[in-house]
Amino acid sequence: MEIRLLGPVEVWAGDVRLEIGSAKPRLVLAVLAASPGTLVPVEVLMDRVWGDELPGRPTASLYPYLSKLRRVLEPAGIEIVRRSGGYLCDVAAGDVDVARFRERVRVAKESDQFAAIELLDEALALWRGQPLADLSGDWVDSFRATLSQERLAGWLGLARHRERAGSLDLIAEELLALTEDYPLSEPLAGYVLSALALAGRRAEALDHYAGLRERLAEELGVEPGHELSELHTALLRNAPDALAPPREAAPAVPRQLPAVARPFVGRAEHLKRLDELADTVGSGDDGAAVVAAITGPGGIGKTTLAVHWAHQAAARFPEGQLYLNLRGFDPLGTPMPPSEAVRGVLEALGQPTQEIPAGLEARAALFRSLIAGRRVLVLLDNARDAEQVRPMLPGAGGCLVVVTSRNALTGLVAERGAEPVRLDPFAAADAWALLQARLTEERLAAEPAAVADLLRPCGGLPLALAVVAGRAAQHPTRPLAELAGELASPRRLDAFDTDDPRTTIRAVFDSSYDALEPEAQRTFRLLGLHPGPDISASAAASLTGNACVHTALRQLEAAHLVTVQDGRYGMHDLVRVYAAELAESDPERTVATRRLLDHYLWGSYSSEQLLVPHRTPPALVPPPVQPGVRPDEPADLEAAMAWFGAERLVLLNLTSATDLDAVVIQFSDTFGTFLWHQRMFDDWITVENLALAAAERLGDQAAATMARKGLGRAYIGLGSYPEAARQLDAALEIARGSGDQVSMAGCHQTIAALHERQRDYAAARHHAEQAHELHTRLGDEPSRASSLNQIGWFSALLGEYAAAVSACKAAIAIAAEIGKGRTLAAAWDSLGYAYHHSGDHAHAIDAYRHALAGWRVTGDQHFVADTLTHLGDALEDAGEHAEARRTWRQALDTLAGFAGPAATEARSALAERLAVHPAR
Questions:
Q1: pLDDT of 248
Q2: 3 state SS of 408
Q3: Sequence-ordered list of residues with C-beta below 8 angstroms from that of 323, at least 6 positions apart, any chain
């Protein structure tokens, strides 16, 4: 049984050729058989079969071809196996002609002369014409081109061995015919001239040279190379040395790797990955060169890693190590043109300068010919983009190409299967190790706090760490704290100035910035106005006033100036400082900042409306948005909570950074609601203190009352009752002084909550009743329902259950009518408590379940936990012990994400219940 790909795609079982169908099934078989016994991912299989013309349902379209192949091949012992992620052709490599060809060529390289001739004769005899002759497509063309280079290398190897054995003339006809397929190959032409001369066909040899010279002039604009010219001259003289072409001289072996940077720390996983890639060189079934793309932002250590590893791996590539700095992002020069780059590697490979073709394509073709069959490491450093690199990619296996770039090189990964090796900033341990390698243990141990202050602003960026370590090493008696102080200044990038543009952080960033297109540069500058830590695409659109900002963001991502995680764009701290410097002089600074604030003010307002639909007093409405602002508008409560969760740190930073007092007050009004719901009391206190200071600067009594009331609630949550009382008393005093009855009522309700925590339920009910009286006077039904619930709850805590039931039912009636979900759920919980403690367990359980359903709709998980606890208590007292334990455990699980004294106390109480009431 044999699968043949070196010609039309065929499958033979003995003397019988199997009918495998039309072009598509044959193409599917070719893709799988090209890598016998190797899993081909479904995505790769589909890409190679259809390329850019995928059908609407590619997986479904693929299945009939696989089914057809299985029906034909399985009786012959060939299985198409489906495994996780892809398919494989379960056949021995020796049963596929391509694999057999490659194996014989590989073994020939390690064999003596006569065994090599036999192996190469067998390998080349497997060719029946153009590989995959009856198929077409991008992968087919690429695979065919790779095999063509391997075939040429095989023939050149055979010619070399036969020349040494004195039998080159025996393959003169074959070599002459081969020139039809490789009309511009000078090494092949040299063997043809020698073979014809040895066969007594000198005139034909001279004619062949003349034809080759004409073709080279017409197609490449060059003369034949020096060695071929000398051979031609010898033929003209009919000299005996015409029969011994000078190809026996060993080719140039370049050793171009630059010096290793010291010290080298970290990157163990990346070194291992490069080692693994080196192991695959020459072993791939597609015969292609292996390409590694080391990418990352400027200063991340790409060149350091590549050169360090290349020195370690040099012995694996005995036929040379090429190095070329492509100057893609060089602050002192322009990117090297691809034609100049190829010229450099040709000269390194020993090609005489006068014999190097003029055009890029001709140079690239010559490079591929010279490197074919050689085991060479090619290190292309600091590439601008994939286009600059493509001409220097070998056409066949045996080589490893390592490319470094600040560009993501997505095209190279997609087109050539380059293995992406992305570098991130150092982890804390590696950052410390780099400092430790340059400074003494005693010096680091003497100032541990200063060392931490040195590491923090570097953010794990190796270049920044190296600069800091170098500056500290230059001044061994200078306290590290002084250097750390420089790094803490607003112009901290000045502290990373080395007077060398290639190692000065600002210059490194400049070169990345200068490579961007104008709109990407504008977007990057304006991102410097954002306080971080990250930004959504919609916020970036508002900031820039550009609905199509995704294009610019993708360019920034490709340049490694921003990172993307979960759809949000972040920056390294030093990159953010650099962007902020650029933003300082941007003429759009003021209007862009206003757009940014509008985006978050309206997003916060819209989200808070979903959290508290019937809020009293209503939230402050932000001013109309600037042109170009596209605020987020969450569709429901879950989306609103998700929006606040994603933007929490941004809102905190914005509130702290802005000098617009009205904006601070608006953020505290809406964002504070989320912080209360999530029990993020420390953050809430930060925001309310900022709002209080802003209100006092503006002389805004209502805002000051609101801020102090918020502080009171937050301090209650933290268990700081004296401070809570101080803030709430001050708030109530301000509200009374200004005659603000709405705020007075709100203060009374919050003071009632404080007294409840202090277990003074009579005082709590007194304040709730005062709030209710004010709500009734104002005609504020939503708030009246809330204060009625408070009265009912405190009455129940005082043991006055009939009064509690009456007040809670009244609250439920109002809340149900107006649709105030949180008050409705709270009133049901209070009613359940009153029923439970009056001995009416059935009604209590029913009321708690109503409350639980309500809290789950509103999304208030801390109240869900409270009600689950109460429900478990009622179930236990009703004799439903197993259900009670299950309910308490649910409550305990719900509290897992909450912090603060209240949550801790609730968890302890639940744990005690579960311990006291073990499973029965």
A1: 42
A2: coil
A3: 256, 257, 258, 307, 310, 379, 381
In the structure encoding, which two tokens stand for residue 520, read together? 């990407």
Q: Which residues of 459-486 are buried (b: 16+ CB within 10 A; e: fewer)?
A: bbbbbbbbbbbebbeeeeeeebeebbeb
Query: pLDDT tens for residues 82-141?
Result: 887 788 888 888 889 988 888 888 888 778 888 889 999 999 999 998 998 888 888 888
For residues 318 and 730, the model is more confident at 730
CA distances 447 to 13, 462, 464, Å, are: 78, 21, 20
Determine if the pTM surpasses 0.85: no
The helix, strand and coil proportions of the chain, stated in percent and rounded to the nearest 5, come to 65, 5, 30
HSE value, Cβ hemisphere, 13 Å, CA-based, for 98:
31
143 pLDDT band (50/70/90 cuts)? confident
Nearest CA to 900 out of 870, 873, 867, 862 is that of 862
Measured CA distances, 795 to 771, 791, 830 (Å): 15, 6, 10
For residue 192, the number of C-alpha atoms closer than 13 Å in the C-beta half-sphere is 27
Rounded CA separation 703/710 (Å):
10
Distances (CA, A) of 415 to 20, 55, 139, 291: 29, 20, 10, 11
User: Do residues 305 and 339 lie in contact, with contact meaning Cβ atoms separated by under 8 Å?
Assistant: no
Separation of alpha carbons 173 and 179, rounded Å = 10
The amino acid at 282? G
Cis bond upstream, residue 501 (ω within 30): no
The helix/strand count (H/E) of the chain reads as: 41, 14
The pLDDT value given to residue 732: 95
DSSP symbol at 96: B
Query: What is the rounded distance in angstroms from the CA atom of residue 363 to the CA atom of residue 359?
Result: 6
Per-residue CA distances from 424 to 294, 342, 384, 517, 562 (Å): 11, 30, 19, 24, 12
- Model pLDDT, residue 249: 45
